[in-house]
Amino acid sequence: MATNRWRGKAAKVAQVNTVTPASVGVGNTFSITINEKTITVTATAGTVANVTGLLLTALQASNDGEFQEIVWADITTAITGTAATPGKPFTQTSTASGGTATNTTAVTTANV
């Protein structure tokens, strides 16, 4: 019978989350939370691109370590957050308020 050995040489994979705002109206608020620390922006135009731009600016300007450990990108229809250190997971949620606004988070690449 063969003996299986674990070598632990699998490549680490960075987690990627996608945050997608929808049903945007002027004055709606959109938030991203990590470890009870929250970044919130208020829509100044009724477009998703307005919200993603505002979120990206706020996330990149944050001095909170939780937000600095993630590389944020604006893909116009959503925000992506990629772990700066592959193999280091993070837990992030998103919310929206006002009208029918939504802000959903999906883990598009799982941490390995």
Summarize the structure.
With 112 residues, this protein is of the alpha+beta class. It has 2 helices and 7 strands; from the N terminus they run E-E-E-H-H-E-E-E-E.
Structure description:
With 112 residues, the protein is of the alpha+beta class. The protein has helices spanning 48-61, 65-68, and strands at 16-22, 29-34, 37-42, 70-74, 79-83, 93-97, 102-109. A hairpin with a 2-residue loop joins strand 2 and strand 3. The longest helix is centred in the middle third of the chain and has 14 residues, at 48-61. It is elongated, with a radius of gyration of 17 Å. The two termini are 30 Å apart.
Give me the secondary-structure topology.
Blueprint: E1 16-22, E2 29-34, E3 37-42, H1 48-61, H2 65-68, E4 70-74, E5 79-83, E6 93-97, E7 102-109
Antiparallel strand pairs: 1-5, 1-7, 2-3, 2-6, 4-5
